[in-house]
Amino acid sequence: MDAKLRCFLQRTEWALLSLEPGSLVPKVDVGGTNEVECTNLQKLAEPTRGGELATVLSDPWLQDVSVVLKREAVDAALAAGGLPHLRAELVEACKSFANAPSGSRLVREQALCMLGVVFLQHYLRANCTGPVKEEDHACLPFHPSALAEGPPHSAILPALEADGEPAYELLACPGYLWLSALFFRLVPSEMPELHGVAVPFWRARCAFAWQLSLAEASERGSGQCPSLFRAGVFELVSGDPAPLSAKGFMDASALSTIQAATAPLLETWKRSSERPPAITVPVPEVIEVQEAQEEGSDALEAMLDAFNPPARAEAQAPDAVEEAPPEVRATMLVELANRLCWYGRVKVWEKSCDAACNALGFEYELTGVMGIKREHQTTEFAQLVVRARSHKSTKGIEVEEPDAKTPETLSLKTVDDLTDVLEVPKLSKSVGEQERLEIERPLTATEQIILLSRCQYIWASSNPNDEMVLQEINSLAQRVVKTLDKAREEEANEGPLFTANWLTFSCGLWYRCRAEHHRNKTRERAAFQLQSLVDQFADERPSAAHRLRTVHSAGYPARFHLQHEMATRMMRMGMMSTAHEQFKKLRMWPEAVECLICAERNVEAEDMVKELIEKQPSARLWCCLGDILKDPAHYEKAWEVSNKRFARAQRALGKYYFEKKELAKAVEAFKLALDINPMFEGIWFTLGVGLMQLERMDEATVAFSRVLSINDEARSKMPAQSCRQPIAGLKLLWLSKTYGETTYINANR
Fold first, then answer.
1. Which residues are listed as membrane-spanning (predicted)?
2. 0.85 exceeded by the pTM?
3. β-pair partners for 381
């Protein structure tokens, strides 16, 4: 490839990933036949990053593809043969576009990547950042803001099921998520393979956005999917070469550690039982996984056949990948750290976050300084603060949005004018000027997302009800929401912006809400602030382009997740009826049923679910009915309705039979569930206990070793748990991959 063309394409890709304001797209200076092609590509970069779907699809250069994506053509394709027909037409259009003219295939592959990106950005705008785009256009394949409750989106929801986990039924614009997944080959198809250096990162972003769109997705372990985990995390640290193996991203030691921590999550029961674990600790290896084209659990099995290869030397990434700017490298590493936390791989979070700090030349620490926290306090005490230092010159806070502002932040005085609690600690006069600057300096957007990642790590790895943990989160959040005393304005026609990025500031407020709900002095402010975060979704300013810049890296939740959190807070405060109505509005039926059961309204819960099943039966509703009536027949019905894909039905059956001491049935149900989705540590453990009671010791050893490979800290608690299952004279061989030692447990003790 021509060096100038290669440089232009890579800089264009890094510009799409950048958090910096303004256009960073390089000038076209490639010469030859590719000059026109590169000029066309350059025009699409900024609209793509900003999620301006109509602008991108209206470009004449993309006519070969956009003609298939027009509303009329999409409706006709769906009517003719549903999603498979639309997919086939899109594949042919994309192949035709990529193959002509000769010599510019890489440029056109980048254009197809931009289409995948703009679909993803629009989907996130509709569900996470706002503001809602109401203006419809004939060039758009679907309505820009319609919910999934009506056609054609309702027909797309089943296609967004992943590893037996259904999508949330009130997603906005799910068709755009499906299109993005299609372009990034997350949906099985014959789409042209894209070869850009940033493609793996956008593919991972799309996979994680899909993961967060599932109905029961939770950072506490439920609704997590191995296929999306593979695309969103594992593929970034594996391969030949791994996308994150380039210089400036992550060293070989950290990469191997993350590989060793992530690979075990992808092993199903079938795979685990076919290859019993070794007692000795294997040296972390670079693992290469080939693309699987099959569907369902067969695809997962085919993918796992490539695991455990012989050790090999680290593959070197192309030198040109090193050209990624430090801010881009730091952003990609923070996103990996956030996903590791979300999937429960908290022990390797530090490896990724440290690499991000090194790329940026940024250091921070939680420390104590003398100061006061109350208005009339006279005695100074140590206050927890965050000191932040940057070894590189920073641009500070840039203003690029007309009429921009910070999200509405409620002060304690606004909520309670009699409070004497200060917003932030007032530092002692003895604190030096340099130290004060490190504590009070407003942060750049990239620095903010690093602190937000630390918040997510603490929240995921610690007890969220521990006051010391919440105090630490509060200190980090307060550091993120630190603003300038006076807004900057770059041009006269631009409004003020008090923070580096609107969305990172909002995410800081969200974590502050989480940290303040437990205190009487701040609980009311936290409730009002959470409602304000939900309401600001509809604000016209700042623009969607500004908000979308950090949507993948800040960890800010979707609007329906914020509403779910509000309803959960109501439930914990005893407001069961109010919480029930909120969950009904959100169509989160398991939570709505739980509210009624807690309020001792079981008959009403049963009637509600039966009425819903009559209108629109689904596997989730049948499971809800089974939870209410404790009837395994309803779980069996859910399994049948889902065509034997809804893993939760088998998990529920297994738990039911286990409680009834019907261990053989419980074991078979758990195995079926783990063949579809193996990312449930608790199910592996319960399966091991059941097998142990059945005296099937070889299989029990496999199940318990899977628990250890997922969570090595479970090693200390498993013997005590297994001792509660008395079997005369039983001795169980426990395998620890962490220490490589053999421990014998006598269950009679």
1. none
2. yes
3. 371
